[in-house]
Amino acid sequence: MNTGLKHATGLYFKVVDSDDWVDTRAYLKLLDTLKTFSGTTGTIDLLISNFVYEKQGSKYRKVMRYDNVLPKDKIFSWDEVKPFKKGQFMMMHAMIYRTNLLREANLTLPKHTFYVDNLYVYTPLPHATRLFYLDVDFYRYFIGRSDQSVNESVMIRRIDQQLKVNHLMLEAIDLDTIHNERLRDYMLKHLEIVTVISAILLIKSGTKENLRKKRELMRYVKQENVELYVNLKYGLMGRLINLPGKVGRMISVMAYKISQKVIGFN
Fold this sequence. Notes:
Layout: H1 2-7, E1 12-13, E2 21-22, H2 24-37, E3 46-55, E4 62-64, E5 75-76, E6 95-98, H3 99-104, H4 117-122, E7 131-143, H5 152-157, H6 159-172, H7 181-205, H8 208-224, H9 226-234, H10 236-241, H11 245-263
Parallel strand pairs: 3-7
Antiparallel strand pairs: 1-6, 2-7, 3-4, 3-6, 5-7
């Protein structure tokens, strides 16, 4: 991704992972939409579209949509964005940034590290002021293969890389410097869901070492962002990852499994 951005010559930049694909009809509509902004003073910073969880072996396909929170078919600002629901957030699959915006944001992802897509999505957001939502199911996110980096058991084995990205997100931006309240609210919620995922994987592993790392993560969150720490300590998702004892951890894992079924993620 760093090399691609370094050499990119297009007005907009899109990453498609090797396991994934895009829908042809949606792609043509998306290209036509982007062409309307090319060479005009109305260039947008970020285009957002839907993506589909293509889960191996599953007949049900979950579509991640944003029509309940984003205005459709118009350029809009963060002031017009409605509050995102719990568990609803923008992944790399949904986003196409203006290429020079990524460069202006000094986006450089850590090498030889998995799960950097969260950094790719999160860190340039304060630079994006002109947004556009296209309500098409463009990106197909393939999940369910046992050796994928997003497979749960693989993520647990690579938990230190997930924690590294989590820490870098906490350090990347001081949310107190974000003056737009709705952008700040979204970024705080995005940080919260990433941290909850880190914590639940540490809990699910069941090892003493990872339970220690979970406590260290919470201490680091408290040090870097007190508001996020309070949300994680007393909010609904936070309470679920902080239930005491072995029984509490079992309840946390059960709640996580229910979320997997409802949302359809891996």
